[in-house]
């Protein structure tokens, strides 16, 4: 779980043997054999992980929301990658796709190869890498022979090492995005590994509808109000920030009625050190049928190929201070109201507006907890409207005017550059 730290950045030009690409949606890169691995927390924060932190390290290394952009007139572009699939004891993790986007249109998804497995114990205290191949080719065809900008979305549930890019004509890194930047932090229901394609995660759906430059810090099972995550957000440029919290803390029973709201205040205070005025949307959890009023720890049942996730605690413990999901919504709303009354630019979004009891007839949760592709798409559309729509909590008109140069905290990689709008460069690996 160690790696040589690289400078955290909002956009990075990666020089490869066959061309250059602009890397986005990450917070750092880890040098690996023959290339670079985008990760979604700065590597210098990894020293603050818990001793049994292998699961956390693997989760933040997966590529949800990570993408590359390049300009080319090539009809076909080949990426050389090394993809690692996570495996939890004997339970294999998801296998998603690569999706190329040309002029706002998604092309046919390409299955991600599996070049290695990382087997992690359920406690997260040990990890073993099981290599299968050194690398694989991901061929993106049908791009069109005209000059264009191509965005390639990486599979959100896999660790992806970027090794090279090859085409018959030049491939050049696109210019950094001028869109307003949205940083989102949440749980597995923001990580969205259950939907087959990276463009189907609800944060990507919402970002594309609103025209935002997304950084998705959705960490499956790991949204615990960690101070190092708050510090990472504080250090990054952002025009709007959102946090969707509650489900992991309740499910793991990591906090109780006494500690949850103060911990949330502390997390927000750390974010505010870098973003004193940036609008924040604080969202609660979506509906968890059958587990709304039951505390953790988590329970999992396996029936053939079906899995059911539920809260397995004792409901009588609520009277002793155990936290439930329903209570967490009340506490989150309370935190927002307190801070809003003090003049803070913060807004509450009820998770039940994204998926609530009235939606259960139309949408199901296949494992009792996580949405499927159809519900993730619906959640993205609802979030775009409720948060960023004309009558939303933070309308685009309120954030689109926040120019990149006006951000409260420039990224470290750009701090000493002569041209603050130019993307830093990562040289070709040797």
TrEMBL record:
Region of interest called Disordered, as start-end residue ranges on this chain: 405-430
Keywords, ordered alphabetically: Hydrolase
TM region(s), chain numbering: none
Domain SsfX3-like N-terminal residue range list: 27-103
InterPro entries for this protein: SGNH_hydro, SGNH_hydro_sf, SsfX3-like_N
Keyword Hydrolase: yes
SGNH hydrolase-type esterase domain ranges (all copies): 186-377
MF-aspect GO terms: hydrolase activity
Comp. bias intervals (Low complexity): 421-430
Pfam families in the record: Lipase_GDSL_2, SsfX3_N
Superkingdom classification of source: Bacteria
Keyword Hydrolase: yes
Entry protein name: GDSL-like Lipase/Acylhydrolase family protein
């Amino acid at each position: 779980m160690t790696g040589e730290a690289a400078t955290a950045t909002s956009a990075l030009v990666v020089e490869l043997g066959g061309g250059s690409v602009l890397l986005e949606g990450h917070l750092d890169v880890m040098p690996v054999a023959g290339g670079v691995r985008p990760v979604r927390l700065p590597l210098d924060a990894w020293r603050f992980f818990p001793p049994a932190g292998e699961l956390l390290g693997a989760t933040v290394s997966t590529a949800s929301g990570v993408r590359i952009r390049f300009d080319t007139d090539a009809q076909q572009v080949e990426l050389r990658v090394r993809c690692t699939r996570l495996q939890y004891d004997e339970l294999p993790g998801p296998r998603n796709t690569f999706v190329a986007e040309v002029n706002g249109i998604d092309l046919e998804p390409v299955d991600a190869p599996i070049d290695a497995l990382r087997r992690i114990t359920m406690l997260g205290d040990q990890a073993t890498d099981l290599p299968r191949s050194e690398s694989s080719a991901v061929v993106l065809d049908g791009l069109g022979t005209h000059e264009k900008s191509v965005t390639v979305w990486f599979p959100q549930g896999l660790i992806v090492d970027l090794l090279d890019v090859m085409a018959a004509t030049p491939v050049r890194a696109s210019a950094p995005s001028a869109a307003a930047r949205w940083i989102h932090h949440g749980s597995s229901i923001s990580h969205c590994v259950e939907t087959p394609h990276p463009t189907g995660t609800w944060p990507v759906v919402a970002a594309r509808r609103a025209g935002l430059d997304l950084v998705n810090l959705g960490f499956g099972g790991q949204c615990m109000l960690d101070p190092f995550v708050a510090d990472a957000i504080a250090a990054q440029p952002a025009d709007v920030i959102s946090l969707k919290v509650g489900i992991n803390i309740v499910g793991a029973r990591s906090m109780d009625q006494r500690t949850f709201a103060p911990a949330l205040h502390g997390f927000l205070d750390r974010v505010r050190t870098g973003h004193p005025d940036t609008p924040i949307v604080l969202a609660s959890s979506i509906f968890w049928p059958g587990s709304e009023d039951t505390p953790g720890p988590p329970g999992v049942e396996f029936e053939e190929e079906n899995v059911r996730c539920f809260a397995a605690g004792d409901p009588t413990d609520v009277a002793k201070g155990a936290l439930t999901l329903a209570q967490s919504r009340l506490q989150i709303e309370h935190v927002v109201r307190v801070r809003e009354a003090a003049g803070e630019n913060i807004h509450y979004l009820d998770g039940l507006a994204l998926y609530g009891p009235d939606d259960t007839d139309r949408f199901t949760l296949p494992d009792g907890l996580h949405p499927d592709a159809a519900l993730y798409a619906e959640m993205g559309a609802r979030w775009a409207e409720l948060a960023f729509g004309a009558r939303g909590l933070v309308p685009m008109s309120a954030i689109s005017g926040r120019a990149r140069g006006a951000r409260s905290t420039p990224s470290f990689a750009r701090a000493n550059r002569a041209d603050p709008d130019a993307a830093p460069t990562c040289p070709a690996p040797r």
